[in-house]
Amino acid sequence: MHATFFILAALTIAGASAAMGLRNLIHCVLALTLGFVGLALLYLSLGAQFVGFTQILVYVGAIAILAVFAIMMTRSAGPHPQPALSAFWITGCVIAGATFAVLAWAIIRSNIATPTSAQPAVSTNQIGDALMHSFALPLEIMGLLLTAALIGAVIIAMPQNRSSK
Amino acid sequence: MTPLTGYLLLSALLFSIGLAGALTRRNAILVLIGIELMLNAANLNFIAFWRYGPHPEALTGILFTIFSISIAAAEAAVGLGIILAVYRHHKTIDLDHINTLKG
Q1: Helix/strand/coil (H, E, C) string of A77-124?
Q2: Is the ipTM of this complex over 0.95?
Q3: How far is CA B38 from CA A100, A125, B76, in A?
Q4: Is A16–B17 a contact, with Cβ atoms under 8 angstroms apart?
Q5: How many other CB atoms are found less than 10 A from the CB of residue B49?
Q6: Of B15, B40, B72, the CB nearest to A39
Q7: Is B10 touching A (CB cutoff 8 A)?
Q8: Whole-model pTM over 0.90
Q9: pLDDT tens digits, chain A, 165 residues: what are they?
Q10: Is the dihedral of CA B61, B66, B67, B68 positive or negative?
Q11: Per residue in B20-43, pLDDT tens?
């Protein structure tokens, strides 16, 4: 266990819990971006460079911006007189805490033998090779899914009265 | 504590934070963000098992994570589209006030 892991883990957890706990929605998304950056740095420290940069591009670059746009288009960034938490928030917290307790118990109880191997070097070349050869079918299905999601999102978000005219 | 245990515990904690947010927040956008956090926790598990697994040269963990990130992007786009449609209909995205599916 290196000090890097603890610093990055603290960064990620702080970002994630601030994203779920703050009242102002814009602050929530900014904290979420911090958590995503922490996760990307964790991927980089684990040797998965391509995934780390993809994480920054997709999550920090696209999803956080998309969430900010959605917040502004739904006018939910202003001051809220009503509480930010749902009426049954205690039940939700208990469920989440119980989930973490069960997961942590299972992880600590199982003695996972990890071979202390050297950090595997993966080049983008190898990833592209695998995507084009052994993972070609999942890649095609992913393209189909992304196309369907793109068209579906546009149709869902389109104003309804356009078709009734 | 082995490094893999540390990463798995971090991932479990991240998953629980996302679950708590998805279950307790009233704003639909934050519920979606909580679900994204849970997906990210699963991605961290994939990468950690790939790094400390017996066959890191197989690249399976990395490719699963790449596919999972693309699915998360599609899910965020569709989810935010649904939230916009719900907002146009109900004039709010407060989940405590949206209690009907009838149009």
Answers
A1: CCCCCCCCECCCHHHHHHHHHHHHHHHHHHHHHCCCCCCCCCCCCCCH
A2: no
A3: 12, 30, 13
A4: yes
A5: 18
A6: B40
A7: yes
A8: no
A9: 688 899 999 999 999 999 988 888 889 999 999 999 999 999 999 888 899 999 999 999 889 888 888 888 887 666 665 676 777 888 989 999 999 999 999 998 887 776 666 777 788 888 899 889 889 999 999 999 999 999 998 888 887 765 554
A10: positive
A11: 999 998 888 899 999 999 999 999
B94 touches chain A (CB under 8 A): yes
The position carrying tokens 């899910």 is: B75
Structural domain spans, chain A = 1-78, 125-159
The reply to whether B97 touches chain A by the CB within 8 Å rule is no
Q: Which fold has domain A1-78?
A: Four Helix Bundle (Hemerythrin (Met), subunit A) (1.20.120)
Eight-class DSSP state of A24? S
Domains of chain B: residue spans and CATH: 3-90 (1.10.287.3510)
Query: A107–B12: do the CB atoms touch at under 8 Å?
Result: yes
For the packed helices B3-24 and B28-52, what is the interaxial angle rounded to 10 degrees?
170
Chain B residues close to A119, C-beta within 8 Å: 51
C-alpha separations of A109 from A7, A41, A105, A150, B9 in Å? 25, 28, 6, 43, 12
